[in-house]
Specification:
five-stranded parallel beta sheet, 191 residues, single chain, globular, binds BIS(adenosine)-5'-pentaphosphate, Rossmann fold, 10 helices, 14% strand, alpha/beta
Length: 191
Amino acid sequence: MINVLIFGPPGSGKGTQSVKLAEKFNLTHLSTGDMLRAEIAAGTKLGKKMSSIMSKGELVPDEVVIAMIAAKIDSTKDARGFLYDGFPRTVAQTRALERMLNERRMKIDSMLVLEVDHDELVKRLAGRAELSDRPDDKDTEVIENRIEVYKEKTEPIINYCRKRGIYQPVDGMGTVEDIFVRLSYHIKKLK
Ligand code: AP5
């Protein structure tokens, strides 16, 4: 059972690539952003509470997403492994994931970090705003805030994982297909 983090700033292509990688390697794709948006779409109490935080581009509380991930891991039967997209986003979430996996005799096998220029991130997210109804893509200030929040709260995870020998940077510029080939190369080595 392998556990791989697909990591990178907003707009780096985590979601796009995770869907393709999950299919190719028969892994379960866990996206906390998608789980939270599903709560909002279903009009749950939790979704209502999280919606205003997300529309500002801030992070929801650690305990909310940690509980979501734990529930998904436990309810997924016969998985060959998990791809984490948008989780963890803080060092506290990373420690919680390590504990969770350790208790289930697993570990984080690799952290694949998509590296994309700032201007390209903004371009991709502004492009998606035209097509999707994600409120956090509609406003340039919110896009910039999400990138800032990533730098401040999420990027420190890279150093944490580097010390554990699982950090692997991946060029996230270019076509979706080229980036998919680069990521696949690293996942193949884990199997
Ligand atoms: P989340 O849903 O995780 O969003 P995000 O990290 O901001 O990431 P995005 O979905 O915007 O980008 P992505 O890297 O997946 O890129 P994508 O493939 O979509 O989180 C949303 C919010 O939920 C957070 O702000 C927070 O509030 C909350 N949240 C979620 N998880 C949390 C957690 N763990 N803790 C706390 N809060 C949490 O691509 C983007 C666009 O670019 C698409 O239109 C795509 O078609 C296009 N594209 C992709 N690749 C390429 C390419 N190579 N060339 C050109 N275009 C491309």
